[in-house]
TrEMBL record:
Keywords: ATP-binding, DNA-binding, Isomerase, Nucleotide-binding, Nucleus, Topoisomerase. ATP binds at residues 58, 158, 179-180, 188-195, 514. Its EC number is 5.6.2.2. This is DNA topoisomerase 6 subunit B. It comes from Kalanchoe fedtschenkoi (Lavender scallops). PANTHER family: DNA TOPOISOMERASE 6 SUBUNIT B (PTHR48444). InterPro entries: HATPase_C_sf, Ribosomal_Su5_D2-typ_SF, Ribosomal_uS13-like_H2TH, Ribsml_uS5_D2-typ_fold_subgr, TopoVI_B, TopoVI_B_transducer. Homodimer. Heterotetramer of two TOP6A and two TOP6B subunits. Residues 396-554 form the DNA topoisomerase VI subunit B transducer domain.
Length: 667
């Protein structure tokens, strides 16, 4: 068709159209660079925290994947802006136009600030004199103080699996690439963390990331220095070479230089490390913060407390109820199985051969066990998907999961809170959207350095979660759905520790920053509630016993307090009565008369009465304790049958029941 336009006009038209088009594309790297907050890189301080997290979690995943007890060394070296400038060959410049800078103050503004500070100081002094608590004076506008950022070199070294030489550039320089997309309990999942650290370094310092790595038995170490082409989402390699590895070291060592803020996030970073050490007691962590101001340096070694590692989580297959149409299509593309029967049987959990046959029968006449799976039409896939949604399948088992274990949780609580009482509970595997999960909980009461009220510690796939506490399912459940009073625990006054660890093949984090688990998945919310309640029930028994023991002690103490007075009163009455008997004013029976004689002869003294009364109080106390134990006191404890078996086993026995145990005596 002839438009009647000349080639020049056509070209111009096309260029105009291109200019007018609003359609633009973004690469994943560009998207995350623009929205770095959703990956936990909200500001320089938080970015420092998240970078450390991502590197540490990669190191642990890596060491655990080869069943190696992890040793992780983390160093944060403060470089400072001036040192950084000289590192990149930028000469420091003196300020010329002071008024250009954000922290510039006019003489008037300075006078105003000084006057305000003097007023504040005066008020503080007055408050201090009247014994009132003092508030930190707020920094005046223009003074950066805690907000000051700096440049840090973050290094993380581990003894893990290492990476294949050729894979390194993509592992660190292509957003959404990784080895943890399978259905398996791992800390990492998205294929994003390490790349975000690199994107942040590119955005804040412009410096590349450095990786040194070697796999087990490999005679060379791979060294790679790279940054990322954000628009194209591909690695931009500066150096990628093999180096000598005489000591046959295996693991990875990552160095990245980023802007951060140690001052504002120091406590969160240390808190994270401490909690990581709590939930990973089989790992050794060496944490260092190095700066020019020697007194600010930090070195902490979190020693390994056990050599027993939880079993390595296993990769599992999809549960039919958890797959969507896209996933079914992908599984069909990837499967090596030829026909529908084999496909159903081998690519999913909980579909045995006979169940697969029944499912195929239910799909209709167009389907048969021998139907080539790759020939299925889109409609047929929809039919399969619909059936997967409606049919009944056994729940996936939790065998592929590796929970931290009640023992580790208890150890952690004792280490963190030094409580007076602690109870732990490990729930059986449960399921949400076809993914198995296990909730383990520890609840404690009392302890030193613990604040009153609820102290909540959350872990997901053995990662400590420190941000967004208020929106998390654990916090909400503990605050709103547990009636602490009914377990004799005071929610506001007692020092309560709540540790909850959830593991799953899929943790439904809100956002890629892995900061909290929402409160909207009813299966998880009810499992969390149940496991906290189970701990509370155990605690209630202990607390009731403690209260009873305390009351008993108190009763004894009160009774004992009266012994002296009561004894002297009785002794006085007896003496008076004895005198009346001597004066023949009154006559008593033989036994009483003898007792009165003894009083007069000082055989029965005040001390004798005191001693007898004290013995009586002890006796009554003992009888009451026995009575309590026989009538239900001990019955709240879990009972276990103990049997004394004869060498040659006979089944003829009598059974004796006591409140605490059962004895079987064989005849
Ligand atoms: N220290 C390490 N040792 C061995 N492999 C590593 C190490 N760090 C990263 N990797 C590899 O690089 C891949 C990408 O890491 P990255 O942190 O970007 O994502 P991820 O850990 O898979 O997922 P997430 O974004 O959820 O953390 C990992 O899947 C892992 O295979």
């Amino acid at each position: 068709m002839d438009s009647g336009e000349s080639p020049v006009e056509l070209k111009k038209g096309k260029a105009k159209k291109a200019k007018e088009s609003l359609l633009k594309q973004k690469s994943p790297a560009e998207f995350f660079a623009d929205n770095k907050n959703i990956a936990g890189f909200d500001n320089p301080g938080k970015s420092l925290y998240t970078t450390i997290r991502e590197l540490v979690e990669n190191s642990l995943d890596s060491a655990e994947s080869i069943s190696q007890l992890p040793v992780v060394e983390i160093t944060i070296e403060e470089i400072g802006k001036s040192k950084f400038n000289s590192m990149i060959g930028l000469i420091d410049r003196e300020r010329v136009d002071e008024a250009l800078y954000d922290d510039f103050e006019t003489i008037k503004a300075r006078e105003k600030r000084l006057a305000k500070e003097a007023r504040q100081q005066e008020m503080q002094l007055k408050k201090a004199a009247s014994g009132k608590t003092l508030k930190e004076p707020t920094a005046a506008k223009g003074m950066k103080g805690r907000g000051e950022t700096s440049i840090y070199k973050v290094s993380c070294k581990d003894n893990g699996r290492g990476m294949a030489h050729d894979d390194i550039p993509n592992m660190f320089g292509r957003v959404l690439s990784g080895t943890k997309y399978g259905l398996k309990q791992t800390r990492g999942k998205f294929g994003l963390g390490a790349k975000m650290a690199l994107i942040w370094s590119k955005m804040s310092t412009g410096l590349p990331i450095e990786i040194l790595s070697s796999t087990r038995g490999q005679k060379f170490k791979s060294f790679c220095r790279l940054d990322i082409d954000i628009q194209r989402n591909i690695p931009h390699i500066h150096v990628h070479e093999k180096r000598e590895n005489k000591e046959l070291w295996h693991g990875a060592e990552i160095h990245v230089v980023i802007e951060g803020n140690w001052t504002t996030h120091r406590s969160k970073i240390l808190h994270y490390m401490r909690q990581m050490a709590v939930i990973t007691p089989y790992a050794e962590f060496l944490f260092k913060f190095v700066t020019d101001a020697q007194d600010k340096n930090v070195t902490i070694k979190f020693a390994r407390r056990t050599d027993v590692m939880p079993p390595v989580p296993l990769e599992t297959k999809h549960h039919p109820s958890s797959v969507d149409l896209l996933l079914i299509k992908r599984l069909i593309e990837e499967t090596s199985k030829q026909n529908l029967l084999q496909f159903l049987q081998h690519e999913f959990v909980n579909i045995g051969k006979s169940y697969a046959e029944r499912l195929i029968g239910e799909m209709g006449p167009d389907f048969g066990p021998k139907t080539p799976v790759k020939s299925l039409t889109s409609q047929q896939l929809v039919r399969i998907h619909q059936l997967f949604r409606q049919a009944k399948f056994d729940d996936p088992s939790g065998d592929c999961l590796s929970p931290a274990g009640e023992y580790n949780l208890r150890l952690g609580i004792i280490k963190e809170l030094h409580p007076d009482l602690v109870a732990t509970y490990s729930g059986s595997p449960q399921v949400f959207e076809g993914h198995p999960f296990i909730v383990e909980t520890g609840v404690s009461v009392g302890g030193k350095d613990v604040k009153q009220g609820l102290n909540i510690f959350r872990f997901a796939n053995r990662i400590p979660l420190l941000f967004e506490q208020g929106a998390d399912v654990v916090t909400r459940t503990a605050m709103k759905r547990i009636n602490w009073n009914s377990y004799k625990i005071n929610q506001t006054q007692d020092k309560i520790g709540v540790f909850v660890s959830i593991v799953s093949t899929k943790i439904p984090f809100k956002g890629t920053g892995k900061e909290y688990i929402g409160d909207d998945i009813s299966e998880i919310a009810s499992a969390v509630k149940n496991s906290i309640k189970q701990c509370c029930l155990q605690l209630k028994t202990k607390i009731v016993k403690k209260i009873q023991a305390r009351e008993q002690l108190e009763r004894k103490r009160i009774l004992k307090r009266y012994i002296t007075d009561v004894s002297s009163a009785i002794h006085g009455v007896l003496k008076e009565t004895a005198r009346l008997q001597v004066a023949k004013k009154r006559r008593y029976g033989e036994e009483d008369a003898e007792m009165l004689d003894n009083v007069l002869a000082n055989v029965i003294k005040k001390a004798t009465l005191e001693e007898k009364l004290a013995q009586h109080v002890e006796q009554v106390d003992f009888e009451m304790a026995m009575d309590f134990a026989t009538h239900g006191g001990v019955s709240e404890e879990p009972r276990e049958a103990i049997f004394l078996l004869p060498l040659e086993s006979k089944s003829d026995f009598v059974q004796l029941h006591t409140p605490a145990f059962v004895i079987r005596i064989f005849q």
